[in-house]
Amino acid sequence: MRLSKHHRPFRHATERVLDILLLKGRVARLSWRLGGHGRLGVTRHEVDLGHGRRLARPLRIAFASDFHAGPTTAPAIFDALLEHVRRERPDLLLLGGDYISFDAANIGALRAFLEQARTPLGTYAVLGNHDVWNGREEVSRALAAAGVEVLVNRNVALPPPFDEVSICGMDDPWTGQPSSEATFAGAGPVRICLMHSPDGISLLGEQRFDLALAGHTHGGQIVSRQGTPLKQPSGRGSRLYPQGRFDIAGNGPLFVGRGIGCAGIPLRLHADPELLICTLR
Q1: At 144, which helix (H) or strand (E)?
Q2: pLDDT by residue (tens digit) across 23-66?
Q3: Spatial CB neighbours of 66, under 8 Å, sequence gap ≥ 6
Q4: Class of the 8-280 domain?
Q5: Cα atoms in the Cβ-side hemisphere of radius 13 Å centred on 41
Q6: 110: which DSSP letter?
Q7: For the chain, which residues make up each domain, given as ranges?
């Protein structure tokens, strides 16, 4: 699954050329003004833990992924996302990776959002393939400096009254070193699995979860009116679970969000960006 070292210089060279062609973000800002980023919206879901399992009260979870800060995404969309988060007032914010495109320094465009999108129970994150390709350590440091807890094959319990809930963050299945055993070791009775790509589902083995959240696919990003992506996402799991809700046998549901920003080119078509709000009952 991992990108070989042989291909990385080619990828970085391609991204440098794209950075020049996109006029270091000016094309993306024009696309945003013309509606080329799509219309950012909120998609709401309800998740029932099942008979005999109760939380102190419903837990409202916000999930956003695939920001792609850099020349392919206009920073104005991050301001719009912040307004949505504030309006929804979730208990918890989870972030699904791919914070940057092309250069880890581009995460600076996310600083205001990361610092201001505070929730009562905190913000937790995993990394995506673009973060790993372009500077895992620098992206992780920037997230931590903004008060975001990065989870790499580990879990944390939420504070009371939700201390029976564990956020289980697994490393990226494409470019990281994912370990389902480490991710779920010692986790509480209610488990929220956070991963960048839905391909991580195939790596979970016998591990149990009540809710899984992933991004990576962008919902196709550029999609025909009939719903066919111009380019299919890489990975069998990403093709099986391109966007929306999927019920996983023996587990809770998997939700795959369309993400926020644009990858490759500053354009979305029939695949609007979205913030997910999942209420766990």
Answers
A1: helix 129-145
A2: 788 999 999 999 999 999 999 999 999 877 889 999 999 999 99
A3: 96, 97, 98, 128, 215, 216, 218, 257, 258, 259, 260, 261, 263
A4: alpha beta
A5: 8
A6: G
A7: 8-280
